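Troubleshooting entry. The earlier prediction with iron/sulfur cluster gave an output that would not parse, so I re-checked the input for stray whitespace and re-submitted. Clean input:
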Amino acid sequence: MADKSQDQTRIFAGMVAKKQGWVVNPEAAFTDILTEGLTTNWNRYGYYLCPCRDSEGSRAADEDLICPCKYSWDDIRDSGHCYCALYFSKAFAASGKAPQGIKDRRFSPGT
Ligand code: SF4
């Protein structure tokens, strides 16, 4: 699989946000760290493993952690942002609030 550049990953994140009605975290320095992590993971694993989580060792085991992860919709609905805070809801972005650390739903099923 061809390597991706960080610019390609930025475009990917923008497309995900647009499609889902979310907003990419406007804090550019922070977002850069996340898109760098996603890019590294793509180039290492061949898929956009969440930059805030560790691989379980295979694509099948990581399926729920491929960005946008399975948990992002619930996290954005409940907290205004995803676990990594790469994506915000529009309302959260408009509020000007800073993202808070949230529980990883992967280890807290049903929350
Ligand atoms: S928490 Fe989910 S949506 Fe946010 S960057 Fe990680 S994989 Fe993507």
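This one parsed fine. The CA atoms of residues 20 and 54 lie 25 Å apart.
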